[in-house]
Write a structure and sequence with these properties.
Elements: E1 6-10, E2 16-20, H1 26-51, E3 68-70, E4 77-79, H2 98-121
Antiparallel strand pairs: 1-2, 3-4
């Protein structure tokens, strides 16, 4: 490789090491990699913790009547008390948060309007009655 020089030397135990032109031995590079793995693990755990919190209050705490419930559409977690309207009991899956429910209902209404208008234009509405 151009611009990068390596030197052989012995570490404190007498084992050979290779040092780059930047003065870092494989041993020090290994310790950096080990620390990097620890940092990556803590970052992954932090991200996991963020994924397991209520989107309203940001907490993970659960009690008997205030469980975290996951929306089947957006996969957001809500405490029963944080969701609006509050959930008095946990519904059987799939459960949809109020925001996703509004989107689904709106899409369904739009589709039904389109279907009805298409039927009126093609004079197929008499099949409905």
């Amino acid at each position: 490789m151009r611009g990068k020089k390596e030197r052989n030397s012995l570490d404190s135990s007498g084992s050979p090491t290779v040092q780059s032109g930047q003065g870092e031995s494989e041993e020090s590079n290994q310790s950096l990699d080990d620390n990097g793995d620890d940092n990556e693990l803590s970052i992954n755990m932090s991200m996991l913790g963020e994924d397991l919190t209520c989107v309203v209050c940001g907490q993970m705490d659960v009690v008997a009547r205030n469980q975290l419930v996951e929306c089947a559409e957006c996969h957001s977690l809500y405490h029963q008390d944080c969701h609006r309207p509050p959930l008095l009991e946990i519904a059987e899956p799939p459960w949809y948060c109020s925001a996703c429910t509004k989107k689904v209902v709106s899409s369904l209404v739009s589709f039904l309007k389109y279907l009805l208008n298409s039927m009126i234009k093609t004079e197929c509405y008499h099949f409905l009655f």
